[in-house]
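Field reference: sequence -> structure
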Amino acid sequence: MTDHILEELLRARQSRTLCALATVAATTGSVPRQTGSKMLVYNDGKISGTIGGGKFEALVVEDCLKSIATKKTVLKTYPLREDRPDSFGAICGGEVTIMIEPQNLNAAIFLIGAGHCSLAIARLATDCGMYVTVVEDRAELIENFPATSNRLVADATEFISQRDWHDDEALVLVSRNYELDRQALAAALKKGGAGYVGMIGSRRKVHRVFDALKQAAPVEKLKDVYAPIGLDIGADSPAEIAISVIGEILQVLRKRKGGHLRSGS
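Structure field:
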């Protein structure tokens, strides 16, 4: 059962599904499950596995949901006997200490397109500990991307439209031509939710895409798009562009001002 829970936990992390792992860390007296028993609690309240059932387990689920919200690990002891002032009616006769570990997720980057710049960005993002997904309709291009990345052969517009986006996710449009980026950006603006949306290209390309979208997208939404993408460091090669892009994404997602760290003295 433990192996099953850990495998499910890995899948949840890979899909960026919010959840918490509850583990029986210690026990005294008579208890329903032994040390090491695990239960996975998802953000919607669904569970996988069990640590004992009944009112006790329901209380742990509640505490798991709180832990997911606060992003803080909790070590808590639950009395399963009636002689404690904090008893909740259990009569097993022992106590169970539960370690609740919310699966706090690193930021994620979604790359639309699998060209040279996209590959460089994916490699650097992986080194930075980000979850990386690349979306490309040409299967042969995604084979060189990091093995830990999520490589999807799919239509970018459909992918963007069907997904629920979150404020710790970056959507980066680096596809092979103007029209694909325009369609992808239109879908992103309509869907909303991502913490960062950026598009690669010259200022001329950006103006063309924005002009084409002004009829369908509010000007306020277009102002939130980072295009041309990246920090102004004079980047030229794909590796330099990756540094520029990842730097901007981290600055935006972490709500930092950027600028130099050196003191004024």
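Note: Strands lie at 19-28, 38-42, 47-49, 74-79, 95-102, 108-112, 131-136, 150-153, 169-173, 196-199.
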